[in-house]
Amino acid sequence: MSTTPFTVPVAPDWEALVRCIRRQGTPLRVHHIELFLDAEVQEAICQRFGVTEGLDPTDPYFDLKRQVALQRFLGYDYVRCSVEKLDMPLHRSLISDTAGLQRAAGRSYMEEHRGPITNWAEFEAYPWPDPRQATTRALDWYEANLPDEMCVIASGGFAHFAEYVTWLMGYESLCYALYDQRDLVTAISQRLIEMYRIVLSRILQYDRVKVVWGSDDMGFKTGTLISPKDLREFVLPGHKLMAEMSHAAGRPYLLHACGNLTTIMPDLIEDVQIDARHSFEDTIETVVQAKERYGDRIALLGGIDVDFLCRGDETAIRRRVRETLHRCLPGGGYCLGSGNSVANYIPLDNYLAMVDEGRRYAS
Questions:
Q1: Own/partner pairs for 111-114, CB < 8 Å, 24+ apart?
Q2: Can you give the residue range of the structural domain that contains 183?
Q3: Distance CA 213, CA 111 (A)
Q4: How far apart are CA 132 and CA 146, in angstroms?
Q5: What pLDDT sits at residue 102?
Q6: What is the DSSP string of 308-336?
Q7: What is the CATH classification number for the domain harbouring 117?
Q8: Quick one: CA dihedral 318, 322, 324, 329, positive or negative?
Q9: The predicted structure's pLDDT at residue 1
Q10: The model's pTM
Q11: N or C terminus: fewer CB in 10 A for the chain?
C-alpha cells in the first residue's frame, strides 16, 4: 500500500503554474518546480512510498507512466521532456560516487583541458547529430496520454549554447581559442544555434508543451566563465532565438543558468527576454535578493540553496521555505524548489520537508 510524507494533498494545475510564471497574480497555492531529480532520488522515492504500485514494469511505456506517477505524487504540475538521440560525444573523467544515494556507475566530470574539437579538422570530423533524426517517443506518448491537468515543460538536452561550446572545446582550449581561433568558436556556436532551432521547432509542434526551459551554465561564484562581450557574441543569440520562437508559439521561456550573471542580467531580461531565471546559490545571490532586484520584470524559480538542503535540519528547512514564500510569492512570479536540482547527495528527508512545507503554506 502506498504511503505519503505530505500533510496536504495537491492536484496538478498546469494553467495556474503558467499564470504564476507569467506573474499574473498571487497563486492560490504554491507551485513547485525542479530542473530535475537525480535518478537515484527518483528511485528511492518510488521504492519508499510505493509510487509505481499498479504499474507493469514490462509495459514498453513503463518509464513514462512512472514519471507521471512520480510527478503527481510529489505535487508537480508537469513532466519535463525533449527529443531523444541527440547525443554528442564528449571527454569526461570518472570517479567513484560517495553520495548517500550512491550512483553505481560513478560520478563523471567534464574534461576541462581539451575537448573533442580544438581545430578545424576535428570540427569537420566530429559526429554532429542530425536534429531532424532525433526521436520523439516520449513527446508522442505524453501528447496522447498525459493527464489533462498536467503539461509538458520542454527541457533537457537542448539550449546548451555556452555549455557545449565549453564542453566541445574544453574550457582551457576555449579560453585560448577566444584569442586565436575565434572563427572556430563562431562555427561551433552557429552549428549549435541551427541544431537547437530545429529541435525547438519540432518540440513546439506539440500542444501539450506549455513551457520551454533552456539550460545553460554560464558562470561561477564571482563572474561569467567567459567575458560578457563573448557571451553576447557566441551564446546569448542562441537563447534570444529560443525565446523568440517560444514567445511566437505562446509559451514562456525559462532559463536555468548557474553562476554569477550580474553583468549580463540586463541582456537576459531586455534583449534575450527570458521570462524566468533559475539556479541560485546563497554565496552569489539569494532568490529573495533576486526577487527584490528583478521580480518586477521576470519570475524567479527555486532558490532553496543546495548546500543548505544538505546541511540543514528539518526545522531550519521548513522555516526557510516559509520565509522565502512570504517574500517571493506575493504577486506571483515564484515557484518553490531547490537552488539547482535535487542531487543524490541531498538527504531525501530534507528534500521532502521542503516540498511538504510548500504544500502546507497558506493551505
A1: 111/170, 112/170, 112/171, 112/172, 113/170, 113/171, 113/172, 113/173, 114/170, 114/172, 114/173
A2: 14-360
A3: 26
A4: 24
A5: 87
A6: HHHH--HHHHHHHHHHHHHHH-TTS-EEB
A7: 3.20.20.210
A8: positive
A9: 44
A10: 0.96
A11: N
Question: What whole-number distance in Å separates Cα of residue 146 and Cα of residue 140?
Answer: 10
Decide if 341 contacts 308 (C-beta within 8 A): no
Residues shown for the chain = 363
Cβ atoms within 10 Å of 222's Cβ, excluding its own:
10
What average pLDDT does the chain have? 96
Please say if the pLDDT value at position 248 is more than 80.
yes
| pLDDT at 345 > cutoff 50 | yes
Distance, in Å, from the CA atom of 67 to the CA atom of 51, rounded to the nearest integer, reads: 10
The neighbour count for residue 345, using CB atoms within 10 Å, is 19
How do residues 26-59 score in pLDDT, each as one tens digit? 999 999 999 999 999 999 999 999 999 999 999 9
Strand intervals (E) in 207-305: 209-215, 253-256, 276-278, 299-301
Average pLDDT over residues 244-262: 98
pLDDT at 246 over 90: yes
- Say how many Å lie between the first and final Cα of the chain, rounded: 26
> Does any domain span residue 49?
yes
C-alpha cell at 19: 499564470
Residue 194, classed as helix, strand or coil, is: helix
Edge-first strand listing for the sheet containing 299-301:
78-81, 151-154, 209-215, 253-256, 276-278, 299-301, 334-335
Q: Is residue 8 part of a domain?
A: no
Q: What share of the chain is helix, strand, coil (3-state, %, to 5)?
A: 45, 15, 40
Output the CA–CA distances (angstroms, integers) from residue 225 to 112, 172, 264, in the order listed. Answer: 12, 11, 12
Of 249, 162, 239, which Cα lies nearest the Cα of 201? 249
- Sole residue written with cell 506575493: 330
Number of structural domains (the chain) is 1
* Proportion of the chain above pLDDT 70, given as a percent: 99
Annotate 119-149 with b (16+ C-beta within 10 A) or e (fewer): eeeebeebeebebeebebebbebbbeebeee
